[in-house]
């Protein structure tokens, strides 16, 4: 004999309705940026149907932004722990210049030069972390100072000149070699994104980074070595930033003493904009990955429309301001009570 279903009470019906009303805004908040990215592509496709929706254009978009993606992902590590690292773009420039000088001027193997460049990034992160942790100084000030110092070092060791002629053993795997029509450097950024996502979501280290960023006092009471986590995050940021410098050197085949610094604002814009999607209110690798390519899509689209070059700075700066506002609103909304107290 068939079992009769129990009738749904008024309380259960109201609870289901409340959940739907809560979930729909949450879904809209999580996936708004991918939706806007798709709409942006559609608009530029309509305005420039002959140049925008081509395989060459999208290959350029995905290939050229790998450096920004890697730099942004490196920036996420200290940001998750609650610290700013304003030296990332300067570390990128230093590693690219060290690689170029060792490989071109001193004829080092490109592989040894890459290791030296990564070592420089680790050294920068170690110094940043040491000053921040041991002396208790705001990382915003520390990394701004060390970044400026690094900029002077780069001008000194390069004699303010561009070093070109980097070995094709680096240039070819970064630019010339392709998979599915896209330069391999895109897949390097994608691989790093997957790795950081796994670390943040499924490892004790990722949990500790998140806990430290959310509340250092509580983390200390829980037994987490907060200073060690913060120091390690800045070292990791330096190494990943140096890796972005290696990619940049391979992309351009040279090292310029100042051009790498232009990545600083886009990296912060992508990091904060990424914090408004997928996991709103939290810095996350996939959000940063999507944000970086959304920003580049907008820049390329405006360029195809013949807009002046200053629009790039307006776009990045405006995106950063909007992203910070939205992330703050999201954080406040999540801190609000889930439901009004019953009378």
Tertiary shape: globular
- Helical content stands at over 70%
Low-confidence stretches: 1-5, 10-15, 17-22, 337-343
Q: pLDDT average, as an integer?
A: 83
> What distance lies between the first and last C-alpha atoms, to the nearest angstrom?
45 Å
Primary descriptors:
disordered C terminus; disordered N terminus; 74% helix; mainly alpha; two-stranded antiparallel sheet; 343 residues; globular; 15 helices
Question: What would you note in describing this structure?
Answer:
The structure is a single chain. By secondary structure, the chain is mainly alpha-helical. Helices cover 74% and strands 2% of the residues. The chain contains 15 helices and 4 strands. It has a two-stranded antiparallel sheet with strand order 1-4. Strands 2-3 form a two-stranded antiparallel ribbon. A hairpin with a 2-residue loop joins β2 and β3 (182-183). α4 runs antiparallel to α14 and α5 (88-105) packs antiparallel against α6. The longest helix has 27 residues, at 226-252. It is globular. The model is unreliable at 1-5, 10-15, 17-22 and 337-343 (pLDDT under 50).
Secondary structure layout:
Blueprint: H1 10-30, H2 32-47, H3 55-64, H4 66-80, H5 88-105, H6 110-135, H7 139-158, E1 163-164, H8 168-176, E2 178-179, E3 182-183, H9 184-202, H10 204-214, H11 216-221, H12 226-252, E4 254-255, H13 264-274, H14 285-304, H15 310-335
Antiparallel strand pairs: 1-4, 2-3
């Amino acid at each position: 004999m068939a079992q009769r279903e129990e009738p749904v009470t008024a309380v259960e019906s109201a609870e289901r309705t409340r959940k739907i009303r809560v979930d729909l805004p949450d879904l809209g908040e999580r996936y708004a940026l991918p939706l806007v990215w798709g709409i942006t592509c559609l608009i530029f496709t309509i305005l420039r149907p002959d140049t925008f929706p081509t395989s060459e254009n999208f290959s350029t978009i995905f290939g050229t932004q790998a450096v920004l993606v890697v730099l942004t992902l490196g920036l996420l590590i200290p940001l998750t722990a609650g610290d700013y690292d304003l030296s990332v773009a300067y570390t990128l420039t230093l590693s690219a210049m060290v690689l170029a000088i060792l490989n071109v001027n001193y004829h080092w193997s490109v592989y040894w030069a890459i290791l030296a460049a990564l070592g420089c990034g680790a050294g920068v992160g170690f110094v940043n972390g040491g000053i921040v942790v041991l002396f208790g100084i705001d990382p915003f000030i520390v990394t701004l100072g060390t970044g400026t110092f690094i900029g002077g070092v780069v001008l000194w060791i390069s004699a303010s000149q561009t070093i070109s002629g980097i070995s094709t053993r680096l240039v070819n795997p970064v630019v010339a070699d392709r998979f599915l029509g896209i330069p391999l450097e895109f897949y390097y950024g994608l691989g790093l994104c997957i790795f950081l996502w796994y670390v943040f979501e499924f490892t004790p280290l990722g949990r500790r980074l998140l806990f430290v960023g959310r509340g250092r006092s509580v983390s200390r009471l829980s037994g987490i070595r907060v200073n060690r986590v913060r120091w390690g995050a800045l070292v990791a940021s330096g190494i990943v930033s140096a890796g972005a410098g290696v990619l940049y050197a391979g992309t351009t085949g040279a090292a310029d003493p100042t051009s790498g610094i232009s990545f600083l604002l886009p990296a912060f814009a992508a990091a904060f904009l990424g914090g408004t999607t997928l996991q709103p209110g939290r810095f996350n690798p996939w959000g940063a990955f999507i944000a970086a390519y959304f920003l580049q899509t907008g820049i390329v689209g405006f360029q195809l429309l013949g807009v002046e070059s200053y629009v790039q700075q307006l776009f990045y700066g405006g995106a950063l301001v909007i992203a910070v506002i939205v992330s703050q609103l999201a954080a406040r909304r999540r801190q609000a009570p889930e439901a009004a107290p019953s009378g």
